[in-house]
């Protein structure tokens, strides 16, 4: 039985951790995750999904604010685990810690490296309209997501997918790929490939500025942006003078000569807007600032001023 220290934080990492716990071939000595954070309107102190899973299985949990030079780091080094496995952990690991493993320190990363190194690879893949993404298992080095590639698997992104659904799918893909790969690492039967530096792209965490929809984009690209930021942090636009979160849109086949952001037509259950290159889309679900999430019918009941040709989407609040 090989020993493992597992590092991860969000739900993405949970199936991966559970597969290690359930396997008779591995013993999880400890789980390292981010400290409990206050979440929601009531700011309740909440454990990460990975911590909750570890506690359910009576596994030791370590939660350093910064792992470098921490007592927790010293404790892990003393464990000298066979494997150190990370999946969306959220901190850089120092070389001294990586070198404490007996076999390998590896990461399960939700992209086809060297594309989308960084903390938000799934968001960028959906936002950019990529036809596919995948999972990479790589050796960990001090530089972010730069280690040699051990294994990869691809997965298509459909127009019905959003970042939430892709996280769920990629988590299971990563779980399966990890469990296929670990025996080869134990046997020394791997052939890692160095990442091509000319193909490296980055996916830094989404900024608040990136949440704004550029309404001059085509309808398909606006849809990609909305799906790419769902279920978090949610795309927004200034609609009828109010900052409004946009949860769901549908690109339409019809064309228009109106300018981006203008109203093409209003019906009882539909608001159709112009986008770039004469494309159009309808908004299905939205949440104006200070209001509840609502469908377009409920929204239109309170916005009788929206008429054909009206500039409904603007750069800033009136």
Automatic annotation (TrEMBL):
<feature type="binding site">
    <location>
        <begin position="111"/>
        <end position="114"/>
    </location>
    <ligand>
        <name>(6S)-5,6,7,8-tetrahydrofolate</name>
    </ligand>
</feature>
<feature type="domain" description="Formyl transferase N-terminal">
    <location>
        <begin position="1"/>
        <end position="181"/>
    </location>
</feature>
<dbReference type="InterPro" id="IPR005794">
    <property type="entry name" value="Fmt"/>
</dbReference>
<dbReference type="InterPro" id="IPR044135">
    <property type="entry name" value="Met-tRNA-FMT_C"/>
</dbReference>
<dbReference type="Pfam" id="PF02911">
    <property type="entry name" value="Formyl_trans_C"/>
</dbReference>
<protein>
    <recommendedName>
        <fullName>Methionyl-tRNA formyltransferase</fullName>
        <ecNumber>2.1.2.9</ecNumber>
    </recommendedName>
</protein>
<comment type="similarity">
    <text>Belongs to the Fmt family.</text>
</comment>
<dbReference type="InterPro" id="IPR036477">
    <property type="entry name" value="Formyl_transf_N_sf"/>
</dbReference>
<feature type="domain" description="Formyl transferase C-terminal">
    <location>
        <begin position="205"/>
        <end position="303"/>
    </location>
</feature>
<dbReference type="InterPro" id="IPR002376">
    <property type="entry name" value="Formyl_transf_N"/>
</dbReference>
<dbReference type="GO" id="GO:0005829">
    <property type="term" value="C:cytosol"/>
</dbReference>
<dbReference type="InterPro" id="IPR011034">
    <property type="entry name" value="Formyl_transferase-like_C_sf"/>
</dbReference>
<keyword id="KW-0648">Protein biosynthesis</keyword>
<keyword id="KW-0808">Transferase</keyword>
<dbReference type="InterPro" id="IPR005793">
    <property type="entry name" value="Formyl_trans_C"/>
</dbReference>
<comment type="function">
    <text>Attaches a formyl group to the free amino group of methionyl-tRNA(fMet). The formyl group appears to play a dual role in the initiator identity of N-formylmethionyl-tRNA by promoting its recognition by IF2 and preventing the misappropriation of this tRNA by the elongation apparatus.</text>
</comment>
<dbReference type="Pfam" id="PF00551">
    <property type="entry name" value="Formyl_trans_N"/>
</dbReference>
<dbReference type="GO" id="GO:0004479">
    <property type="term" value="F:methionyl-tRNA formyltransferase activity"/>
</dbReference>
<dbReference type="InterPro" id="IPR001555">
    <property type="entry name" value="GART_AS"/>
</dbReference>
<dbReference type="InterPro" id="IPR041711">
    <property type="entry name" value="Met-tRNA-FMT_N"/>
</dbReference>
